[in-house]
Amino acid sequence: MQSIFGSRFISLKTDFEWPPGSCDLNTCDYYAWPCMKNNVFKGRTFSDTHDGTVELKSAVEKEILSMNSPENRQKIYNVCTRSFIERLKMVQLVNGKTFAKIKSDLKKHLNE
């Protein structure tokens, strides 16, 4: 694969390693879920009862369907693609560390 794709090939056995299990590069973690959560909870609260759980489940299902509509699908794809490319650049700049690890290291350094 590397002989075909050269430096564009990303894996654990190349010069540009893919950060294993990086939540910073998971579009569900950094875009889809926060977006959905904001829309589901916008101006609403759900009780801890069975009815509240049913209502929350229904609201999440409705939001998923909305995100999958043709007009939203292209918008989400464009946002995720741009953001993913920027996040890849950031991960490369920090040598594969997770953003949370960098934040933690920075706090330790500032407190010294």
Model description:
The protein has helices at 2-5, 27-41, 50-67, 70-93, 99-111. The longest helix has 24 residues, at 70-93. By secondary structure, the protein is mostly helical. It is built from 5 helices and no strands.
Question: What descriptive keywords fit this protein?
Answer:
5 helices; 0% strand; 66% helix; single chain; flat
Write the layout of secondary structure elements.
Elements: H1 2-5, H2 27-41, H3 50-67, H4 70-93, H5 99-111
Helix pairs in contact: 2-3
Count of the separate structural domains: 1
Describe the biggest sheet? none
Query: So how many helices?
Result: 5
State the share of residues found in helices, binned by percent.
55-70%
Task: Find the structural class using helix and strand composition.
Answer: mainly alpha
Q: Which regions are unreliable across 5 or more consecutive residues at pLDDT < 50?
A: none
Rg (C-alpha, Å): 19 Å
N-to-C SSE string, H for helix and E for strand: HHHHH
Mean pLDDT: 78
Distance between the termini: 46 Å
Query: In one word, what is the shape?
Result: flat
Number of strands: 0
Quick description:
Helix content is 66%, strand content 0%. It has one domain (21-111). By secondary structure, the chain is an all-alpha fold.
